[in-house]
TrEMBL record:
Coiled coil segments of this chain: none
SUPFAM superfamilies in the record: P-loop containing nucleoside triphosphate hydrolases (SSF52540)
Name of the featured protein: ATPase AAA
Residue span(s) of domain AAA+ ATPase: 77-273
Domain of life of the native organism: Bacteria
Region of interest called Disordered, as start-end residue ranges on this chain: 13-34
Length: 350
């Protein structure tokens, strides 16, 4: 394996990200002040991947070669990775696999729905909450609860307490190492979102007008990040430093505008074959599980053209078989029937 690969898909966490070459000059960002990194390992990613650190190397599901190479291309080029593929092919989990192996901490997750706007991903400002708090503070100014007025002594009159960065906003904070951002199911969005997103990702920055207005009186204001930590925003502008590793997923429900496609690295995850399924089963159920449950895997793969099945259905069937401990002939019949039910193609509800 060539050593240009930073993400190796090998499972066990390592510090390869330290060796990521500098960005191309047109993707070099210089935001500040640099925020502290998140904790390197996140239990949510371990759960998604089915691994525990001690056995990560042995049990980990290995991604395909193209998958590994295109993840690295996105890391080198500081471009978002647009991941397409059938339901359950592992699009969303890829973000966790990269964050876990490279020790990049909690995956910032933005599940997109038709109402999602760019602003939701960037930040939220609770203007009403702020007004209410100010009123309460003024009324009780002479009373024993006066301390809440202290917020007014904070930079910008405490406005930062009411601003919370969203997953995209947090991913763009100036950090020494890339954060991992999952923009999940972008194809479900309103027609404008992909283009709006594109602009922010091109510039690697965004502005918070509520803080920009304070320029002069308060240039550095602490706000809340998506992780719930306090971070400093300077002059109402958030500009990244290490460009985040961004996974945009799509089930192909609609096409994206050409400018977005041009600025992303496109990875299509094919339907999993037997080898890939066996490797995922091993990751979740342990060594030997793929062999023990070969019949269910074969059953999963035996589909009519056009049938859609997701890997989660296979996992459900295997988990149930393991836990129910069916052994005798009658139970074998139950197992067969339930497996067929659980593996029913998703586009055939009846
Ligand atoms: N690298 C991996 N290691 C272990 N398990 C994996 C891996 N990739 C995917 N899986 C498992 O496969 C299942 C489906 O993965 P995932 O949810 O990422 O698919 P998806 O393509 O995002 O599906 P959808 O389009 O429905 O959102 C999950 O249960 C996940 O745990
Ligand atoms: Mg998904």
């Amino acid at each position: 394996m060539s050593d240009w690969l930073i993400y190796r898909g090998a499972g066990a966490p390592h510090d390869g990200i330290e060796h990521l070459p500098p960005p191309p000059p047109w993707r070099d960002f210089d935001g500040g002040p640099v925020v502290p990194p998140p904790a390197a390992l996140d239990p949510a990613s371990e759960r998604r991947l089915g691994v525990r650190p001690a056995e990560a190397e042995a049990r980990h599901h290995r991604p395909g070669e193209t998958e590994r190479e295109l993840v690295n291309a996105a890391l080198y080029l500081r471009r978002p990775l647009l991941v397409t593929g059938a339901p359950g092919s592992g699009k969303s989990t890829l973000a966790h696999a990269v964050a876990y192996e490279l020790g990049l901490g909690r995956v910032l997750s933005w599940p997109v729905v038709s109402r999602s706007t760019l602003r939701d991903g960037l930040y939220a400002y609770d203007a009403i909450g702020r007004l209410q708090d100010l009123q309460i503070a003024r009324q009780s100014v002479a009373g024993p609860e006066a301390p809440s007025v202290a917020a007014e002594d904070e930079p910008g009159g405490g406005i930062g307490r009411y601003i919370r960065l969203g997953p995209l906003g947090t991913a763009l904070l100036p950090a020494a190492r890339p954060r991992v951002l999952l923009v999940d199911e972008l194809d479900k969005s309103d027609i404008d979102l992909p283009n709006d997103l594109l602009n922010v990702l091109e510039e690697g920055e965004f502005r918070i007008p509520e803080l920009e207005r304070l320029a002069g009186s308060a240039s550095e204001v602490p706000v809340l990040s998506d992780d719930g930590t306090r971070v400093t925003v300077r002059d109402g502008r958030v500009r990244c430093r290490a460009f985040p590793f961004i996974v945009l997923t799509s089930n192909g429900e609609r096409d994206f505008p050409a400018p977005l496609l041009r600025r992303c690295i496109h990875l299509h995850i094919p339907l999993p074959d037997k080898e890939r399924l066996a490797s995922m089963v091993r990751a979740h159920f342990g060594e030997g599980a793929a062999e023990r449950h070969e019949a269910v895997i074969d059953r999963f793969l035996d589909r009519e053209p056009g049938d859609v099945r997701a890997v989660d259905q296979l996992f459900n069937a295997i988990h149930l078989t393991q836990k129910a401990g069916w052994t005798n002939e009658d139970e074998e019949e139950t197992r067969r029937r339930l497996t067929a039910e659980l593996l029913r193609p998703l586009d055939r509800t009846r």
